[in-house]
Amino acid sequence: MSTTACPECGLPRADDQLETVPCPICATVAGQTPARDAVTRKPDTDPTAGLPADASQLHSHGGPPANFPFGAVLVFLLGSAAGVGSLLGWQTAFPSRSAIPSDSTVTPVEVSKVERPLPALPPKQIAIAPFPHEPKYAEPEPDPEPVPVPDPKAIPQPQADRIVVIELNLPDAVYTLPFTMKKGERVVLKGKVKTLRASGLDGGAVLDASALHAANIYVTGRIDGRSSLKLNAPNGVVTVSATVTGKSTVEVAAPGGEVKFSAPTTATRPGSQIDGGAAVTLTARTIDLRGDVNGIDTKVSVNIPRTGTLRVAAIRGTATVEYRVPEGKGVLDVSAVILAPTATFKKAD
After folding, report:
1. pTM tops 0.70
2. DSSP letters for 175-224
């Protein structure tokens, strides 16, 4: 709320009461002639009356003027004293909780001097660089000597009227016969090889690898047309994935090893079937014939040790499968899943 001094006595008054409510001291209303003046002031009073004739005496201290408002001053002083008394009485009756008594012994603390202990930190580990030294380099291993592989161009092509002999010394390498044998061609393999790969034989061709020691042998082509194949893999594995037919002969010597005719016979594919009057002789500890043994005059002869295993998928037609063991004694594991009434599956005398 804004206030304005009374134009007569100087008492601070609210602006909205200045022109409507008479002043409590001088009874003056702004814009009107004070009531006090209407009673005490004469209309034709000389303003210079009572002043000294000499201007130098204007500043002399005299008594208060006759019309000085002693009553107003007295009322103001009494009101001030009453206000101070009321304030002191209120503070006495309702002391502040935060007030500190005058006789308190609490000593103010200087915040700048308060020291808060810091948490203990683990000792910092300083990494020490290793002492410089010359780098050591591992000496490279010497490159293995290349295995000499016969150049296919250096091998003479087989002919029906002569025998081609190939000497191999590849105990850690793979040798693949570089040509397909047919029309009576004859090849003899000797020596040692880790893996031998041969394709099919046809037209009376002969591949004699009985003098070649191999760890693994793979035959992937058809053996047909009275052809002849001889393989030797002591303690190794021989895998035949094609058909043997056309009165061809196959001899596999893998004592202590394994022989697999791996491709099953289905209605659309012959797989590794033995038929057509073929004669197959197998010597191994484990023999697995997944292709059918079928046809007229087809015969498979098996030589296995006393604790060997023979598995035959099917024996059909008039085919014969017979097995032999040393001295005719042993506990064998032999079986034929399908055996036709006209087929033969027996132990040889």
Report:
1. no
2. EE-SS-B-TT-EEEEEEEEEEEEE--B-TT-EEEEEEEEEEEEEE-S-B-
